[in-house]
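During the reporting period, we have paired protein sequences with backbone structure tokens. One record among many follows, to show the layout:
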Amino acid sequence: MLIAPPDSLLRGTLIRRFQRFLAEIRLEQGEIITAHTPNTGSMMQCAVPGHRVVVSRSPNPSRKLAYTLELVRARGRWVDVNTHRANAVVEEALQEGKIEGFEGWAVRREVRLGESRIDFMASKADRRCYIEVKSVTLTCGADVACFPDAVTERGAKHLRELMAAVKRGHQGMILFLVQRSEARSFRPADEIDPVYGRLLRDAVRKGVKAQAYKTRLRFPYIRLAQAIPVSLDSGVTGASSPRKRNPAAG
């Protein structure tokens, strides 16, 4: 899918992220702008002053902020930090039959499940599968993607809802959309949110499927690429320091 029209994309350097949803950026032309940051996580490894960024500029005059932070250059690679786009990438892949096991399934977005809204419900005949998508921008070590990057009560709630759906006879899946091209595998970030890690393992034991897919960025397009292994082993070394609570993360 297209990140944004090419003529709306501008490059710059991150000065700072502040008030969670705002970023101060110096464009290549020297202008300093404030961009909306559509990411509820800590953006650890990405929201680093001095990192190169790509922003889009909206032509909509009614928008409070004309600019949106789209990509950040981390460890020499572009990372998609716009979490609003993750579902669109997955929806495109589901419709094109690129996610194994869902060829020919009908897909609905934003469906009610218990007390939450789950990203997708895929259905075929009398079968239903509820799918929750998490955008992954963090690595724990050189080539291992991990989630979450902040304590996530919302993410834990989604896992509980998926477990409840499986108990009722449906299918449930948590799909980690990995935005780090160097990643060769995925694991839960136990050092950041051990509760989420334990709950993810419990969900898998109870029948929720956990899958991780990398994205492929070919500027200005981003698409679903190959699946990578999900490791649920605990006690992995190379830990980052825990971050403070962020109830809305994930």
